Amino acid sequence: MKKKVPPGLIIAATAFEITPLLLELKKKEPVNEWGPDILITGIGLTASTYTLTRYLSIKKPSWIIQAGVGGCFDHSIPLASVFAVGSDTIADQSVVELGTLKTLFDLHLLPENQFPFKKGWLKNESSLLKKCRLKRVKGISVNEITTDRKKVRFYEEHFQPVIESMEGAALHYVCLMEKIPFLQIRSVSNYIAERNRKKWDMNASVEKLNQEVIRLLKTLQE
User: Fold this and answer.
1) Which of 16, 89, 134, 196 is most buried, with most CB under 10 Å away?
2) In this predicted model, what pLDDT tens digit does every residue of 119-149 receive, in sequence order?
3) Is the separation of the CB atoms in 13 and 41 below 8 Å?
């Protein structure tokens, strides 16, 4: 008898970010034709870490995909562009000293290669990332959405990120610790430090995000 493979898991900070996917899954007969569980973690690193860890104490999926929108540091990248985040880290777990941002690794409070970190980054080297055709970029995760221009400069100089989110590093950390293949997919909803919501494109970013997630799910079933 063929061994049954555990279903995968789709996580998002809010239901809004994956509403098109939820509607698509609802059309299927059976309802969950592709097999993934759905988990809404809540916003932020703390909520995401707790909710995901709690789920994993009950079930262990074959893979985890985190889908969400995020801010972008590069203004030449069009809004609603979708990326796979290959490396993430917690940017505001740091301090500014003498005009320079220093992380816990720079301060020698934590070895930069202490598992699951590699040179201070939470790197995704899983098979799931290799199956994804999206462009890979660096991401940073923060507890406070970046609006200060000085912080933007500090983050750009130290991390050279493309994407900022409030949950990505939680996914990377937990999955690396638990040895579960994972993928973080982010769609650009706004540019970093742009607080005028009229200049954001949330609807298009959610639509493009879900298109890519649905495409990837179909690929995983082939």
Assistant:
1) 89
2) 999 999 998 988 898 999 999 999 998 988 8
3) yes
